[in-house]
Each structure stands twice: as C-alpha cells, then as structure tokens.
Design goal:
With 441 residues, the protein is α/β, with parallel strands linked by helices. It is built from 18 helices and eleven strands. Mean pLDDT is 92; it is low at 425-431.
C-alpha cells in the first residue's frame, strides 16, 4: 500500500478524526473514565508532545474522575522518592525529587514536563487529607541493586536481625561486582551458580512479615519493601534469562509490570475500600496490545495484552503517533542524548496515513466499522531511547493492526523533542544494562 490519497481507509479515517488544539478532547476523557486503567502510550521516549498530552490527560482524570495513582515505565525505588514528595511526606524541590533517576536514560523522567506535572500533583495533594492523595509509582525492574539498598534500609529500621539475614542472601551478587550482565551469563549457561534460591527466600520471608505498627504509613513502608523484594526476585530471573532469547526476557519484564499494577491496586484498595483508578505511562510497545503486532509472531506479550486478559473491560489502551519532527535520543546505550530529526513516516505506514488526514493533531476514537477497517497490518514506528534514522526501517518499524492494538489513537503530525533537566552524573558501580525492543523501549 504505497500511497493513501485515493484509498477508502483514508476517507473513513478523515470522517472520524477529531482535530483538537491545546485542550485534551472531552470525549477522550469520558472514554478513559469508563475504565479503571488508563494505559497512556507514546511513540518515543523523547517527545515533548506525548509527555505533555499524557500529563494533561492524567490531570483531568485526577481532578474529574478520582484517579489515585500514576504508574510509569520507571524503576520502583527511583519513583518512590517522587511518590513521597508529591504526597507531602518529604520536603525539598521537584528537581530533588527527580534526582533519583541517575542512570541512562535520565531524560526519560528528568525533563521539564515531568517536573511541571509532579509540582502540580504535590500542590493538588497538599490541599487534601493524606488518604485521598494521589501516588506516583514505578513498575520497571532494572533497579536490582537500588532495590536491595532500599530493602536493607527498611529492615535496618524495622528488624535488624532480618536485615542481617537479607545481607547474607544478597551477598550472592557480590561475586560479580554488581555486574548483572556477568551474573546473567554465568547463571544462564549452567555454571551451577545462581542467586535464585536466595532472592526467593528473602521475598518469602518478607511476605510473611507483618507491619510493626498500626498506621497507614507503616503499611506503606512494608508494601514498599515487599515491592523491592519482588523486583529483586524478578530482576534476577530477567538477567538469568537474558542470554536465552529476547522473547523470554521481554515477557518477564512486562509480566513484572502487570504484576506490579496488580499488587499496587490491591494495596491501594485496602486504603480506599474500592479498586483504584490508575494512569499508566509507558511506550506504545508496552501498552498497545502485542497480539495485534509482529511481537506476537516472536512469542512476545506485553502490558496491554496482559491487562486486557487480566482485567477484561477495565483497561483503555491509548496510543500516540507522529509523522515527523524532532526527538531527544541517543545513538547507542549509555551514550549522550541529542536532539535528532525524526524522518517523515515511511510510505505504507500508519504515520503516513495519518499525515494524509490533514490535521496538525487529532483524536481517532473509532466506531466498530472503522475499527474493523483499521484491523489490517501496516508499518508502525517505535522510537525508544535510541534512534537510528540511518537504519530506520529495520530498527524502528514493525507491522501492527492499529485498530486492535489500541482503543484510541492521538496523532500529532509534527512533534518536538523533550527538554531534559541539567545532568548531574553520579559515580556508580551498578551495571544494569537491559535488553529492550525496539531500540531501547
């Protein structure tokens, strides 16, 4: 399908495309409010417009529809610092709250849009009683060593003897000088060495423990510790599987994200007395339904697909696309980020089709007839923290049936790069390099 100008799909899309300006369309907010989980995607990790739109949508869901949690594609302990700040449990500035994101890619969360959003969220929360405040959480699993530190700090306060047992268990990783790739290679290729039993034993012990006090803050601290222990257990499994194939490690990562959403939902329900509404921020490749993309052919699932199965009728999947513009991205893992030009969408892609619609930005909330027409495979672009325009077709495009992949799509024809906050690199011995698809998502 090289061109769309005379194609009936273009005419059908034009009829239902809803152009909008700066304000988020009210019909989208109403559609999202009808589901408990608002999965808000992005076509790249470095585009200002996607972050700003997600922030605006989330503000509306918080103010108008009682959303109680924002959950990001970020690490649990890094987001926990923001969570405490936005809920008024810590003082300091928004920049200080974001300082936990020290590792590559720092701009993914340390940027001006996120800073403005969390400052708004703190002001919103401080005008409300503690039990009505909205939290900010991470659901990724790359922070094994940071989670170990957080868990040990909790146990040092709550149960020093348990802290000593945890130190002995987690010392298993010391053999590899905190190099998780080296650990994954050794544990994954039958050397007989593995930390699996140690991390499972630690998680089991913590799950059997009970809060030492009676207030909600104590319960939150124990839940935070348990989540860190779960993360260590799942991250150990992830790195052990890294060298067995992309599908197994990808699936473990997205399963961890969904399990985190479930555990967080159950924890907040105890406080609220009802299942909480949550807004989830992650890449399209995680939040669109993988069964409608080429990922399924590789044996991969993702958060969007699992959420639809685990919570039928409760998850709304919103995707974002762009035709051209600029993006903040690196050329390789752990390399400096630059503002790069985003090439025009390839012929035969959803981006090229939406460009022909002729609006600067529009919402596509298709009826069943159009959804059926959109249920055909076209190319779709995904830019992660790495962008390689010289190999764009191979590195950043895959086939997707967008009508089944998402419940709705926002297209911004020309987008601009995120503005990152000043870098303050911290010395660290942590070596936690993920295997991500495509190109760092």
């Amino acid at each position: 399908m090289p061109g769309f100008r005379s194609h009936p799909l273009l005419a059908a899309t034009r009829r239902q495309a809803r152009p909008f300006g700066q304000d988020v369309p009210a019909e989208l907010i109403e559609a999202l409010a009808g589901r408990r989980l608002a999965l808000l995607g992005e076509a790249s990790h470095g585009t200002h417009d996607f972050y700003a739109l997600r922030a605006g949508i989330t503000r509306a869901l918080v103010e108008q529809h009682g959303c109680k949690a924002v959950v990001i594609e970020g690490d649990w302990p890094d987001a926990a610092r923001i969570n405490r700040w936005v809920r008024g449990l810590d003082d300091g500035s928004a920049d200080a709250a974001l300082s936990g994101f020290e590792r590559f890619p720092t701009w993914m969360w340390r940027n001006t849009v996120v800073r403005e959003f969390i400052a708004w969220l703190r002001d919103y929360n401080l005008a409300r009683p503690p039990w009505q405040r909205v939290g900010f959480y991470g659901m990724d699993l790359y922070s094994l060593f940071a989670s170990v530190r957080e868990l040990l700090a909790y146990l040092d306060r709550a149960d020093p003897e348990a802290a000593q047992r945890a130190r002995r268990r987690y010392a298993c990783f010391d053999h590899f000088q905190q190099n998780l790739q080296a650990y994954g290679y050794a544990a994954g290729f039958g050397t007989g060495f593995s930390c699996e039993e140690a991390v499972v034993a630690q998680l089991t012990e913590l799950l059997r423990s009970r809060p030492t006090g009676t207030d909600g803050e104590d319960s939150d601290e124990l839940f935070h510790a348990r989540q860190n222990a779960r993360l260590v257990r799942n991250a150990e499994q992830y790195y052990r599987c890294m060298f067995r194939g992309r599908a197994s490690s990808w699936n473990l990562r997205d399963l961890h994200m969904v399990d985190t959403l479930q555990a967080l939902g159950a924890h907040l329900q105890e406080r609220l007395g009802e299942p909480p509404r949550m807004a989830v921020w992650a890449h399209n490749s995680h939040l669109g339904d993988a069964s409608a993309t080429a990922m399924s052919e590789q044996g991969e699932w993702n958060v969007g697909e699992l959420a639809r199965k685990r919570w039928p009728g409760e998850a709304f999947l919103l995707g974002f696309t762009t035709y051209e513009g600029s993006v903040r991205a690196a050329s390789g893992w752990d390399e400096p980020a630059h503002v790069k030009r985003v090439r025009p969408g390839l012929p035969g892609s959803w981006e090229a089709l939406f460009h022909e619609v002729g609006h600067d930005r529009f919402l596509l909330l298709p009826d069943e007839g159009l959804r059926a027409q959109l249920d055909q495979p076209l190319l779709e672009r995904a830019i992660g923290v790495i962008y390689l325009p010289e190999t764009e077709r191979r590195s950043h495009y895959f086939n997707a049936r967008i009508g089944a992949q998402f419940d709705a799509v926002i297209h911004v024809d020309r987008t601009r790069a995120l503005e990152s906050l000043p870098e303050h690199p911290q010395p660290t011995t942590d070596v936690e390099v993920p295997e991500t698809y495509p190109a760092g998502v």
